Structure formats: C-alpha cells, structure tokens
Amino acid sequence: MQTLIELVRTYEEGITKGHLYFNDVELCHCIELPWLHNKPNESCIPEGTYILQHRHTEKYGDHLLVENVPGRTWILFHPANHAKKELRGCIAPVMEIRGQYGMHSRMALNVLLRNIRQVGIHFCTLKISSHENTPAAVGSPHPKIFQNT
Hints:
The protein is mainly beta and about 150 residues long. An 8-stranded mixed beta sheet has the order 6-5-4-10-1-2-3-7. Strands 8-9 form a two-stranded antiparallel sheet. A hairpin with a 2-residue loop joins strand 8 and strand 9. The longest helix is centred in the C-terminal third of the chain and has 14 residues. The two termini are about 20 Å apart. It is built from 3 helices and 10 strands. The protein has one domain: L,D-transpeptidase catalytic domain-like (Beta Barrel).
C-alpha cells in the first residue's frame, strides 16, 4: 500500500486553509499563506504531487520537507499557528482553525508524524488539491501549468 497524504485546500483572502488526510482518513487541518502565484516567501506552493521526507533540526525538531516544489526550496511541514507571521511558504498542520489562526500546531504535526512512523517509512507522497470552486471565489485562479504530477 502506498502512503498518501492529501491536502485539500480552500483559498481565502489572506490565508489558505486545508484538511489533511492520511491514507483517506482526516488527521487535522492546515494553514498556509494565500495563493500569490507561487511568489517565494509570500505564497503557498502550487497544487500538485510531491515527495515528503522526514527531517530533524534543532529549530523545528521532527518535521517534513516537501521536495521538488517548482521555483521554491526549503518548503516544510512545521508547527505554526499564524500563517502571516510564522510561514514563508511552508505548511503548518493544526488541530483547529479559528478565523485566520491555527490552534495546537505541534500536536497536529505529532499526530501526522506518528501516523507516518507507524507505517515504517521515511518518504511518502503529498497530493495538494483544492475544492472545485474555491480559487475562482477569491479571484485568483490557480494555474494548472504549475502542477507537478
């Protein structure tokens, strides 16, 4: 069985919100920067399919690296509760979203990492998509040419 993590986004003014699924089971939510055409440090990353690799650093502890993002480097899954202040294109898993803020991000990341460890892998697939009508709702269609599938 291939391990698949799927992030289904909703684009809003000032923030991108998502539901994170692990092998078709919803684990938590995510917050990201808004879609600003993949502009480094200011935009969420393009929809597509990526490889996730487990990492450990002193700053974030255990977290995940999103590999091969077009035009971007060092995109991580790491704890953050305020997208605009704490993210530069990375993805923050959260247990709950209240308005523009995430809640209990470290807990959400630990839930995701525990599920990955239970299947005994160091790499898995991340698929990012959106609800069918949301990019148009905020007036900024997501360019499908950036898809990395």
